[in-house]
């Protein structure tokens, strides 16, 4: 959505207007296409995806990502506060990040609760392979 907003704001500008706005290097590399990169000009890479194969670590990373996105939207809102056509969708996106953060928090609590449960294992005298009617009594 942010890419769509940027596209709408830059649609139809000339190369000279892009240069005057400080977008000369960006325009040289990408024209007016939306290219995923940070505000500092660093392109998106898979290094931004943090996954460890551990549900608690992964959920903590998800929580952090939602907070970072929320903070970014708030800064964009500050920069565009005089343009309601830009601010309204940014506020919507910020609210979604807050809800996502809440849902990831709930998932984290659920995983932590599940991992904290005591596990009980029972063994009986059952010969499952010879039990043809599947009514094991162990």
Structural description of this entry:
58% of the residues lie in helices and 0% in strands. With 138 residues, it is mostly helical. The chain folds into two domains: 7-48, no CATH class; 50-117. Helix 4 packs antiparallel against helix 5. The longest helix is centred in the last third of the chain and has 33 residues, at 84-116. The radius of gyration is 26 Å and the shape is elongated. The termini are far apart.
Describe the structure concisely for a colleague.
The chain has 138 residues and is mainly α.
Essential attributes:
single chain; 138 residues; mainly alpha; 0% strand
Largest sheet: none
Task: Indicate the mean pLDDT.
Answer: 85
Give the termini distance in whole angstroms.
Answer: 57 Å
Low-confidence stretches: none
Structural class: mainly alpha
Query: What order do the helices and strands follow?
Result: HHHHH
Residue share in helix: 55-70%
Total helical elements: 5
Would you count the extended β strands for me?
Answer: 0
Which overall shape is indicated by the principal axes computed on the Cα atoms? elongated
Quaternary state, please? single chain
User: How many domains would you count in the coordinates?
Assistant: 2
Radius of gyration, in Å, reads 26 Å
- Strand proportion: under 5%
Topology, pairings included?
Blueprint: H1 2-10, H2 15-20, H3 24-30, H4 55-79, H5 84-116
Helix pairs in contact: 4-5
């Amino acid at each position: 959505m942010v890419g769509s907003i940027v596209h709408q704001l830059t649609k139809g500008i000339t190369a000279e207007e892009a240069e005057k706005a400080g977008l000369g290097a960006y325009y040289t590399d990408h024209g007016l296409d939306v290219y995923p990169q940070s505000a500092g000009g660093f392109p998106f890479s898979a290094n931004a995806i943090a996954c460890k194969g551990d549900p608690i670590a992964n959920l903590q990373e998800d929580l952090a990502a939602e907070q970072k996105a929320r903070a970014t939207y708030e800064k964009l809102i500050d920069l565009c506060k005089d343009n309601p056509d830009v601010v309204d969708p940014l506020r919507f996106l910020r609210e979604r990040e807050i809800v996502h953060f809440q849902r990831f928090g709930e998932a984290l609590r659920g995983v932590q609760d599940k991992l904290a449960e005591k596990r009980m294992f029972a063994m009986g005298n059952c010969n499952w392979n010879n039990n043809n009617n599947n009514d094991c009594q162990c």
